What we know:
Elements: E1 2-7, H1 12-23, E2 27-34, H2 40-44, E3 50-53, H3 57-64, E4 68-71, H4 79-88, E5 91-94, H5 97-102, H6 104-114, E6 118-120, H7 123-132, E7 140-147, H8 165-168, H9 178-186, H10 188-201, E8 208-212, E9 218-224, E10 229-233, H11 239-247, H12 278-289, H13 293-309, H14 317-328, H15 337-358
Helix pairs in contact: 1-11, 4-6, 9-13, 10-12, 12-13, 12-14, 13-14, 13-15, 14-15
The structure holds nicotinamide-adenine-dinucleotide (NAD) and magnesium ion.
Amino acid sequence: MKRVAVLGATGSIGRQALEIIDASPVLEACALASGSNELGELAAARSVPHTQVGGDLTTLLDESSPDVVLNAVVGFAGLPATLWALERGVTLALANKESLVAAGGLALAARERGGGLLLPVDSEHSAAFQCLEGRALETVHSLVLTASGGPFRGQTHDQLEGVTRADALAHPTWQMGPKITVDSATLANKGLELIEAHFLFGLPYEQIEVVVHPTSVVHAIVRFRDGASLAHLGYPDMRVPISYALTYPERAGTPVEGLDFAEGLTLEFEPPDLETFPLLALARRAGESGGTYPCAYNAANEVAVAAFLAGRLPFLDIAGVVSETLEAVDGAPAGDLEELVHADSEARRRAESAAGALVP
Ligand code: NAD
Ligand code: MG
């Protein structure tokens, strides 16, 4: 049995992970955690011995000593659990991209010391991981991450004036929690994923490209130096990458159907509109600048998205808040967790004040 700690158990990824675990003869939930939602029924139905609502998740991890940590917490709050697993060499199935974006350098150093597996749950990164596995990095020409383009693909900046919370939460291809759904509408999600890919695969930013692919069937493509490309395809269903990470390297069966070519399958790709969706270009610049710029990008985006969801900030000003924050911070590298947490707090403070100034 593999004993899995499911962090963020009440969320979109957490619930799908529990479905995978319940159906598997070799997986068992040993701990469940959420931020503020009660775990009563979820825990009772499975007699999970360790549960926690809110607080420091590392206490729960210490008590439950899992074989795998599935980190499906949303936001920077997932960082302690990411570092806990990497430092100890406990397999980390990582959905919480924000922790790797904010603390990439510290996380990689912890993985180096811990020597364990870091398995991406994000669909594009799971796909890229599978295309890259067993291949030398010098044979890779570039990695292509696909983006659905979100609900506002094809619209102009002016058309996005007055976009509501409900408009932004209507994602065309994926059912997800509210924060990542807004990130998909602004393309900040793809920005975070660009930085996530840089840290996961050790590729420089100029070797990572983003392309819009509206149906989300191709999850990632790796171009190799000989002109060949490998792609990973499947209907958009997070149970596939969740199951892959939890059962790695077994690739257990899932209830998800394979592609049906008889129905006809057209694959379309187009370049992202960086003018209408500036958060993608801002992420690339933050990533290339290094230091704590990615941390500040993530912090400012979390603040701005929360303000948008609370009705305090217009949709189009999310990018403005992030851009002003990146201008204001010094981006100095963080030598340790304390310095990183300080950079995160500083960026949040700047972002709050930028958001306050932008309120109409
Ligand atoms: P969600 O909002 O549905 O769920 C978030 C979960 O995190 C909830 O269980 C919540 O209680 C918990 N949580 C929040 N703050 C917490 C805290 N301080 N301590 C402990 N738990 C806390 O979000 P989601 O869509 O499941 O996404 C989770 C993560 O997975 C995000 O980082 C997201 O970017 C990533 N991800 C999600 C999808 C998807 O399809 N939903 C795809 C790829 C990556
Ligand atoms: Mg993704």
